[in-house]
């Protein structure tokens, strides 16, 4: 009997790899991956919601500031832009521009996005208010005028 035939190599029981355990821990990795994807998606939705909220706030502040300034202008006040600035500030916006043209007032306001992300821009919005135009000149600048139905710019 030769030595090679008689001595079968046996592994120590602790060194054997049990079958079916090569995937051990894979479920944990998958769960962590799914959690990371969900958190990233929620962060993206939060950033978009912050931008949308700032945009809506800027639009509302611009509309209210323009209407308040036009009302003050119609009542004979000398500086309607001071009222526009007060209303814009009360609505969380900064007045960037206020132009009085006859009985119309056009304002531009800016709202800073509150996300703490510098790459998300501030929101600027414009609004115009005043009495309806009686001269028949069509609205060619794309901004709706007071008492003018939306979508009918320049239509007689």
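^ Assign residues to that structure.
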């Amino acid at each position: 009997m030769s030595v090679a035939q008689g001595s079968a190599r046996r592994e120590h029981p602790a060194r054997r790899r049990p079958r079916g355990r090569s995937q051990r821990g894979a479920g944990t990795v998958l769960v962590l991956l799914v959690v990371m994807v969900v958190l990233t998606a929620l962060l993206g939705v939060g950033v978009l919601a912050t931008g949308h909220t700032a945009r809506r706030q800027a639009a509302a502040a611009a509309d209210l500031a323009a209407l308040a300034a036009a009302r003050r202008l119609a009542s004979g006040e000398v500086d309607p832009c001071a009222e526009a600035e007060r209303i814009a500030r009360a609505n969380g916006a900064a007045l960037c521009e206020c132009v009085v043209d006859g009985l119309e007032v056009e304002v531009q306001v800016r709202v800073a996005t509150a996300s703490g992300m510098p790459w998300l821009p501030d929101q600027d919005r414009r609004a115009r208010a005043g009495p309806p135009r009686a001269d028949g000149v069509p609205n060619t600048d794309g901004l709706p005028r007071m008492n003018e139905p939306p979508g009918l710019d320049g239509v007689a």
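Residues 45-133 form one domain.
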